[in-house]
From TrEMBL, chain A:
Zinc recorded as keyword: no
Gene Ontology MF terms in the entry: iron-sulfur cluster binding; metal ion binding
Organism encoding this protein: Fervidobacterium islandicum
Protein name (database record): (2Fe-2S) ferredoxin domain-containing protein
Iron-sulfur is among the record's keywords: yes
Keywords: Iron, Iron-sulfur, Metal-binding
From TrEMBL, chain B:
Protein name: NADH-quinone oxidoreductase subunit NuoF
Entries under Gene3D superfamilies matching the protein: 3.10.20.600, 3.30.70.20, 6.10.250.1450, Glutaredoxin, NADH-ubiquinone oxidoreductase 51kDa subunit, NADH-ubiquinone oxidoreductase 51kDa subunit, iron-sulphur binding domain
GO molecular function, one term: FMN binding
Domain 4Fe-4S ferredoxin-type positions: 542-571, 572-601
Keywords linked to the UniProt accession: 4Fe-4S, Iron, Iron-sulfur, Metal-binding
Lineage of producing organism: Bacteria, Thermotogati, Thermotogota, Thermotogae, Thermotogales
Domain of life: Bacteria
Family: Belongs to the complex I 51 kDa subunit family.
Amino acid sequence: MSKVKSLEELMKIKEQALQNIKMREAGKRGKIVVAMGTCGIAAGAKDTLKAIVEYMNEMKIDDIAVVQSGCMGLCEVEPTIEVALEGQEPVVYGNVTPENAKRIIQSHILEGKVVSDLVVKRGEV
Amino acid sequence: MALKTNTILICAGGGCISAGEESVKQAFERKLKEYGLDTVVSVVETGCMGACSLGPLAVVYPDGVYYQKLTPKAAEKIVEEHILKGRVVPEYLFEGEKEKLTIKEKEPAEIPFFAKQVKIALRNVGVIDPLSIEEYIARDGYFALHKALTQMTPEEVIKEIKDSGLRGRGGAGFPTGLKWELARQQKSDIKYMICNADEGDPGAFMDRSILEGDPHSIVEAMTIAGYAIGAQKGFVYVRAEYPLAIERLQKAIETAHEYGFLGENIFGTDFSFDIEIRIGAGAFVCGEETALMHSIEGKRGQPRVKPPFPVQKGLWGKPTVINNVETLSLVPPIIHKGAAWFRQYGTEKSPGTKVFALAGKIKNTGLVEVPMGITLRELLYDIGGGHPQGKQIKAVQTGGPSGGVIPAEYFDTPVDYESLGKLGAIMGSGGMIVLDEDDCMVDVAKFFLEFTVDESCGKCTPCREGTKVMYDILDKITKGEGTMEDIEKLEQLAQVIKDSSLCGLGQTAPNPVLSTLKYYRHEYEAHVKDGVCPAKKCKAFISYVINPEKCVGCTACARVCPTNAIHGEVRKVHEIDQDACVRCGSCIEVCRFGAISKVTPAVVGSISR
């Protein structure tokens, strides 16, 4: 670690570290809920979760919380995820393979366009 | 750092570690690995969260749900239920969260234990990973140091501290800014900055918690202080009984060096500062500043006469400032946010907050930080939760062996230096021992005197001999051999020791006796005149007796009695032989019929008389 000489450098460290701390707390513009009931896990939700986390890291998205929940009751289209952005109604996607997860993040989270071919339901589950 | 879906903060303060935090952490990690979640869920050990009686504690983010009294099994369940399925595990929820079983964002402020607290000294304790300098920086760490070194002159730093009205949190309440100013004015090429972490009061652990939970705040504060007074070298004097604090502080000093917050030309300025840890052997007197300096110099830790004060002639004869851990932890926020911000908490003469360690007969034992001026009642009942069994709280003892007792009728007194001083107690370092009707005041005084007799360094006669004589008199009284002259003698002795001792240890040693005599003289007199211990605590004044109406002859008491003092046939009324009884109280604990009771005065001879 090189020595910190200026306020800018200090600020940079603060911001980076804050991102990590922010991850702990729920002050975000939205969240992705991965259904991790037994059914979801059996259908591969764990790989989906990992893919989501890795891709978000890759794209440096830090204002979206990723949380796990139980079964949403849509076992036939597992793995399912729910994308809830602030000010929009939540969207539930089905058959979210790791590949599809990337598509959803790219399109829905980054570009704000719903991935219509994967949508199972709009609105509260 | 990778994105994490959940973060589990586990309290690794001293209390939780002794309650088995390590095994809980391992269980969390094991279970997370098992589910392949170890890469997306992080487990962080933090400093003390404060609710020590409910440890081990953990908070699960992003929901901010507090869990208490964790076991490895609980940890496994939390991973399976909460982390995997998003369902809160109700049986381990923190008290006060129990009524809200829905997961939602939760501010700690909604929990009564946290509601009245304002955390400045403990701002990061229990929130950040103490070993991570980045997390400290994320919470505005080292910004105060940058501001002080690049935008303020040393005089301006001192003025800010003076304006804030910060007073020594070691207990004496000397204005910190004034101390710095006096040291600044000294002409000397070498000056020293010392952090006094020789916390020795029985029942006080706030300094340890700050060092363990937020070591960087001390590194930063000492560097700011060094800049203000013109010192290049700092020492932290920690007792060897705090290995974890030493370890984390050492790590903090190392990483601060790596980042350039310690060492040569900090922030590119021409100010250089370094900190060394000095480990003390844990003698109580070494918390006294002159004895502490002798100890750092490698001499025997004994006090010397003041003046000259350390700011004039301190370590190796050079001007030295010695500040307590908690005092220092308040410095960076004051510099960063300004004196006016600090003054919005507390009172005119005692601004800011104070950390207290609640111990004894109180529900929420642990660490709390409150604005000064809060009443004792709020502190004990609203935050402390009152008596664990709902009994009457009789008094509270503040300030350890140098302090005194405050009876319940004074619980509306605001907590600040002057008010507590008026009552004959002191603010002290912040240890608060809560006493109830089962605590005998003579015995309490004796406990503290025993401590000072042990810890007296022996350099001056009034303290070395005087405290021993006082202790012997108290011992006599608790054994039922005291006279009224003894009580008078106690008062005389106390006055002489107070007036003639060399250092603070001796000067304040009689305080526990004086204050118990002031408020509870009747208890002393009951021991002497009536042969009664009102609290039924002193063994010489009590007997255990069996009520023949209630005894069913189950033999439980006879079986636990260590001296075989209880006789009786099965299904017949039992009897206690008073001569053989050592009054250990084992019988009362096992009796399921409430047939045994403690009585005072003691029954003479056997019960049949």
